[in-house]
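Module 6 notes. Inverse folding takes a fixed backbone as the condition and produces residue identities as the prediction. Think of it as a translation problem where the source language is geometry and the target language is the twenty amino acids. Below is one complete input and output pair. Work through it position by position during the lab.
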C-alpha cells in the first residue's frame, strides 16, 4: 500500500454498504476545513487510471464540499474481494453502525471471507467448522468480539431483506428487537415490524384521573386540618378547642 494525492473528481464511488449521511459530511467538512485531513481515503485501481473508492466516502464528500481538487489516498493492493473486505472492516471498526447495518456488514463479510478462503459460498461451508474460524478471523481484523460476530451475523441470515429495510434507522433498530424478529417466520417478519412501528407511532391516550372515593376525600380533609393545626399558635389552638364542638353558626354569633 502507498499514499498518493489523487483528484477528488477522479474517484468513482461504487455501491456502498452504508449510505452517505449529509449531516456527518457537513461535520467532517467543518473539521477538515479547520485542521485538514487526518486519515487518507482508501482507493483501488482496477484497470488503467480508474480509481474506485474503498473506504472514506464521507471524507471524500466532505473534500468535495470544501471544493478540494486533491485528497490524500491509500492505494490498496489485492483483489476485488480484498477491496470489499477492507471497506467492511473499516466500517465495523467505527461506532456509527446501527444493529441492522452491523448485521448486514458481517453477513456480507462472511460471504466474501468464504469466497476468498474456501472458494465456496456461505451455504456450502456450514457445518464444516469454518464459521467458527470466520468469527475468530473477523474478531482479530475488526476488534469485534467473536460472540458479537456470531450473534449479528445470525440476525442478518435469519431476517428477510424487506424486514431489514423497514427496521433500518428506526427506533426498532436495536439488537434486542432484531433477536425477537429473527425468531418470527420469514413470511411474517415484515408484518411484525410494521405492527410494532405503528404501536410506537400511535399516541397513547391520556388517562383521566380516577374519581375520588369517600376514604380519599376524608384523608385529604384530615391532612388539611392537621396542616392548619400545625401552623397555628398556642392561643389559636386553645380557642379552636373551645369552639370545635359548637355548630358553625353559634361560633360566630
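Target side of the pair, the amino acids:
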Amino acid at each position: 500500500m502507498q499514499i498518493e494525492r489523487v483528484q477528488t473528481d477522479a474517484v468513482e464511488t461504487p455501491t456502498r454498504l452504508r449510505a452517505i449521511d449529509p449531516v456527518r459530511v457537513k461535520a467532517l467538512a467543518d473539521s477538515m476545513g479547520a485542521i485538514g485531513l487526518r486519515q487518507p481515503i482508501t482507493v483501488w485501481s482496477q484497470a488503467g487510471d480508474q480509481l474506485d473508492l474503498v473506504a472514506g466516502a464521507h471524507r471524500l464528500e466532505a473534500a468535495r464540499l470544501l471544493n478540494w481538487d486533491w485528497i490524500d489516498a491509500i492505494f490498496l493492493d489485492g483483489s476485488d474481494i480484498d477491496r470489499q473486505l477492507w471497506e467492511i472492516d473499516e466500517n465495523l471498526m467505527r461506532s456509527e453502525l446501527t444493529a441492522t447495518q452491523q448485521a448486514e456488514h458481517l453477513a456480507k463479510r462472511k460471504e466474501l471471507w468464504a469466497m476468498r478462503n474456501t472458494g465456496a459460498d456461505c451455504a456450502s461451508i456450514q457445518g464444516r467448522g469454518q464459521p467458527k474460524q470466520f468469527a475468530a478471523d473477523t474478531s482479530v481484523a475488526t476488534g469485534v468480539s467473536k460472540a458479537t460476530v456470531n450473534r449479528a451475523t445470525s440476525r442478518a441470515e435469519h431476517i428477510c431483506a424487506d424486514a431489514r429495510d423497514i427496521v433500518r434507522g428506526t427506533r426498532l433498530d436495536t439488537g434486542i428487537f432484531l433477536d425477537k424478529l429473527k425468531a418470527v417466520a420469514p413470511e411474517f417478519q415484515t408484518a411484525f415490524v410494521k405492527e410494532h412501528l405503528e404501536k410506537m407511532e400511535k399516541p397513547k391516550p391520556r388517562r383521566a384521573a380516577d374519581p375520588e372515593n369517600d376514604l380519599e376525600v376524608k384523608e385529604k380533609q384530615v391532612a388539611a386540618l392537621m396542616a392548619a393545626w400545625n401552623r397555628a399558635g398556642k392561643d389559636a389552638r386553645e380557642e379552636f378547642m373551645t369552639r370545635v364542638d359548637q355548630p358553625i353558626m353559634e361560633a360566630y354569633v
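Reference fact for the lab report: Strands lie at 2-7, 11-12, 41-44, 51-55, 70-75.
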